[in-house]
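Friendly challenge for the regulars: who can give me the structure tokens for this chain first? No prize, just bragging rights.
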Amino acid sequence: MSDVLLSLDDVDLASNVAAGRRRPLQSELGASAELGALGALHECSILLVDDDPIALKLERRILSEYANVRFATNGADAVRVARASPPDLILLDCEMPGQNGFEVCKLLKADPALREIPVIFVTAHDDVEFENLALTLGAADFISKPLSAAKVKLRVMLHLQLRQQIEALRCLANTDALTSLANRRRLDEALASEWSRASRNCLPLALLLIDIDFFKAFNDEYGHPAGDRCLRSVAQVINGAVRRPQDLACRFGGEEFAVILPHTHTAGALQVASTIRERLATAAIPHRGSSVADHVTVSIGISCLAYGGQGASERASWSPQPGDGELVLVDMADRALYAAKLGGRDRVEIAAVQR
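First reply, four minutes later:
Bragging rights claimed.
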């Protein structure tokens, strides 16, 4: 991927105004001079949607130097391609046979997995009424035809940079500052989403709740700065035991952690729990305040959602009842964690449910 640096000479903003086109935003006026200083964008993907092969060829030639470019020639294909592999930005022609750009935009914005992707309309229309309609539907911007390389590059670069900044802020908002794991907010969002997916598709879902044994005694013995270092070390061990992209390790609060394991039965959850305990034993973080070991240990509670025929014979695999939500999974794992601590700590317990 090559860097794209735009100078004021590259940007045709003055001609846009002279031709009666949309007044450029203040950010656009300064963007061309500052873009180089912002540094190169990470490699990104752009989906071009247009039934005109000439327009597609032009857009692809303009953008392919710094992005992975895919294309679709109709609305149905555009939605299918976007769902299969969500792009970072969509350049969408307004006037296409079958589903027009407005209808495609509605479908994209109605899909939770796609609604945050910026959509830039490409159109021959250039009036306030069209702009208002496009923005109302959720479009990030629009580019008027005929297309110029400078105009397309500038608008696309601006929205890609804005998307990256939004993603960076979202990451900060969802990350625990001390451990760098996902925070409780992210856990709640992810668990609700995975519960919905599991319930809809009859898929297994496991949850681990993990508590550092005698952590108050650790802080009393070594001090709170050492306690923070201990939390970071345990977080690294837990995160290292979670290997699949869809799994999520989180800080639940205080000295408690959680791990969401989609598509996982009790046996798989037990394996992850065992790996965490084994790696903590290897790390051997000294803990003179513990009555179960001379190093830091954890107690783990497991709950698992499963459906008939999918590990239903396994202990603690259960089917949801009407009205159940993701908090049932948390409650069951919490009960299992309590049992692990009551049973002596440094152990794993699986929630049992009576139905």
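The mean pLDDT is 83. The domain at 184-350 is CATH 3.30.70.270 (Alpha-Beta Plaits). Your move, everyone else.
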